[in-house]
Design goal:
This protein is an alpha/beta fold and 357 residues long. It has 12 helices and 13 strands. Helix 6 crosses helix 7 and helix 8 packs parallel to helix 9. Bound molecules: adenosine-5'-triphosphate and magnesium ion (MG).
């Protein structure tokens, strides 16, 4: 007996496009299903030629068919969407809007957590990456936005070197271990510094943000550039619902700069969630975070010890929270993620974004 078409389609509905995170059946990516002697042949149309996800589809289809009665094997081929098909897909992903409309597409209940500080090198990027993984471990669907256009180190820390996929004018973030990452660094050649200024920069960020398809995520963690420059102000305007975590080092000296970041947050209407002290320990001491939190009248969300392993794991592209979840610093970061999660309802969020469900 041949397997039923319904059973085949039901099985294929469990095959998820790893980047778009929706069933291939729903994305109209399946073509030419035929059955002969229990062998199902089908074609999956990819968004772009040379898509790196063929393996994943192959494995998923195999798993999907494993339990379908009367399926004895399958033959999967790939082809590429036509421009018209891509356009239809883009419209579908935009929730019906055919044209690009300068709306930042985040689910209405998605939290935006901006990790900021007043000066460089305090551990913003390390914390952003590790907090993202911590949220993921807490069961959240996570996006990470590397908005530090002068530094862009997050792809390296997370070990994500795969480029985003562009479907027409929509940018689909690469995914690794369930994290979606978007970095402006993906669009730059090598390490050349970015020289945009003022309105041009704002426009570039806006375009970048509105063209990114985040899909269903619960939290977006944003690595902010240091200081109170144009980028921060622009991001504040583009992501008005962002809540800010200010990172500081334990020394007294770092406070003035961090408090500048805090006043930036207030200027741009972002809600201040609290302070994280990073690199606590014998070398730099402790107390800067506490003092800054008191000064800003916000909670100290936690202290992350100075830990050589944290740096090594960042260099290796496997952040400590993923690699050594039992280490003291990983646990400190997970506790901070929990503290942020618990502070969900506290305080009001100014101005909300236009939303797409
Ligand atoms: N708790 C820590 N213990 C040990 N090393 C750390 C810790 N936090 C960060 N580092 C290391 O300090 C360096 C700077 O950290 P990171 O790049 O995260 O800071 P940043 O604030 O993003 O810097 P920038 O302003 O240059 O973007 C990195 O080498 C990182 O691995
Ligand atoms: Mg950084």
């Amino acid at each position: 007996m041949e397997p039923s078409r319904d059973a085949i389609l039901a099985a294929l509905a469990t095959v998820i496009d790893p980047e778009l995170r929706r069933p291939v059946t729903e994305l109209d990516m399946v073509r030419d299903i035929e059955v002969a002697d229990g062998v199902v042949s089908l074609t999956i149309v990819l968004t772009i030629a040379g898509c790196p996800l063929r393996d994943s589809f192959e494995k998923q289809v195999e798993a999907a068919f494993a339990d379908v009665p009367d399926v004895r094997g399958f033959s999967l081929s790939f082809s590429v969407m036509t421009p018209e098909e891509r356009q239809a897909l883009t419209t579908k992903l935009r929730g019906g809007a055919a044209e690009r409309d300068n709306v930042i597409r985040l689910p209405s209940d998605c939290r935006v957590i901006a990790v900021a500080s007043g000066k460089g090198g305090v551990g913003k990027s390390s914390l952003t990456a590790n907090l993202g993984i911590a949220f993921s471990q807490l069961g959240k669907r996570v996006g990470i936005l590397d908005a530090d256009i002068y530094g862009h180190s997050i792809p390296h820390i997370l070990g994500i070197h795969q480029k985003p996929v562009a479907v027409d004018e929509m940018i689909v973030p690469p995914v690794k271990d369930d994290l979606k990452l978007m970095s402006i660094g993906f669009f730059l050649d090598g390490n050349e510094p970015v020289m945009w200024r003022g309105p041009m920069l704002h426009r570039a960020l806006e375009q970048f943000l509105t063209d990114v398809h985040w899909g269903e995520i619960d939290v977006l963690v944003v690595d902010m550039p240091p200081g109170t420059g144009d980028v921060s102000i622009s991001l504040g305007q583009l992501l008005p619902r962002a809540e800010v975590v200010v990172v500081t080092t334990p020394q007294k000296l770092a406070q003035d700069v961090a408090s500048r970041a805090a006043s930036m947050a207030r200027k741009t209407n972002m809600r201040l969630l609290g302070v994280v002290e990073n690199m606590t320990g014998e070398i730099f001491g402790a107390g800067g975070g506490e003092a800054l939190a008191a000064q800003l009248d916000v909670p100290l969300l936690g202290q992350v010890p100075l830990d050589a392993l944290l740096r090594e794991q960042g260099d290796a592209g496997v952040p400590i929270v993923a690699a050594y979840p039992d280490s003291e610093s990983a646990q400190a970061i997970v506790a901070i993620a929990e503290a942020i999660d618990a502070r969900r309802e506290a305080g009001s969020i100014v101005k909300s974004l236009p939303l797409v469900g």
